């Protein structure tokens, strides 16, 4: 049996800087061994432990969709020891990956229904994967209307700028991009994400909402969704707790009797309401 703590070798095949502050990078990873690539079977919502040899490892959401073949994307904000080393790593360098870990967005519940995606800041990574998965030609008929709300503090802090522009041009999805403070020629929404959702008022009818963002955004978004008629069972959130093993062994990430790394990171709001408020 394979050791679950042993990382697989991957090579950094590309690096892009996402924001004006230059502290968020997306790295494109390619597997060193084709067999490892085939064995790495994942769905949107899952994460992996990325390791820099000699520095350690940290959990990062998988930002690409399994429909985007031949590589994995991870978008990383520089926070401390490991993420700083990941920012320093150069193209062609080898790092380790352990995964895929955790559960996925609730695909069976989303299928045949409208999907509302709400993201804020750099915590938009696995939602990017989810959107790429839904709009893939083979998958698009499996879902009804797709509406995306995404916000950042300023235009320079939006991530995936090129992809956002592509989504805005598509007729099979509605994309609402907002910033708290607009600069010069900004032509999209201005205002925090919950305010823009309230203004646009997407229908709760037959709709599953996926939410991922900073705690303050989530705090003000949930009452807006309730006002629009969303039930707690139809809202799913992805949590970012501190983690160590990532496989439900060390007890570092638990909320009550749930392990965020194994039972999550995706939970329905109804499930979270039944747990201690430790997240
Ligand atoms: C399931 C999951 C998915 C994640 N996805 C992403 C992602 O896509 N992109 C991304 O940039 N980050 C993501 N994170 C957060 C990322 O794991 C942390 O920023 C990282 O572990 C910090 O490691 P470090 O060694 O650089 O920092 P450390 O040196 O360990 O710590 C630096 C600072 O960050 C704090 N910190 C450490 N871990 C966390 C955490 N999990 N949440 C909040 N604060 C923390 C520490 O208390 C300290 O103040 C995710 C976390 C989880 C659990
Ligand atoms: S990180 Fe070890 S149990 Fe979740």
Distance between the termini: 34 Å
Count of alpha and pi helical runs: 8
- The Cα radius of gyration reads 18 Å
Ligand inventory reads: flavin-adenine dinucleotide, FE2/S2 (inorganic) cluster
CATH homology superfamily name of the largest domain: Nucleotide-binding domain of ferredoxin-NADP reductase (FNR) module
Largest sheet: 7 strands, mixed
The neighbouring-strand order within the major sheet is 10-9-8-7-11-12-15
Strand-and-helix sequence, N→C?
EEHEEEHEHEHEHEEHEHEEEEH
Low-pLDDT segments, ≥5 res: none
**Can you name the CATH architecture of the largest domain?**
3-Layer(aba) Sandwich
CATH topology-level fold name of the largest domain: Rossmann fold
**Total individual domains:** 2
Tally the beta strands. 15
Overall mean pLDDT stands at: 95
The CATH class of the largest domain is identified as Alpha Beta
Structural class: alpha/beta
Instruction: Report the sheet-strand fraction.
Output: 25-35%
Percent helix, as a range, is 10-25%
Query: What is the approximate shape?
Result: globular
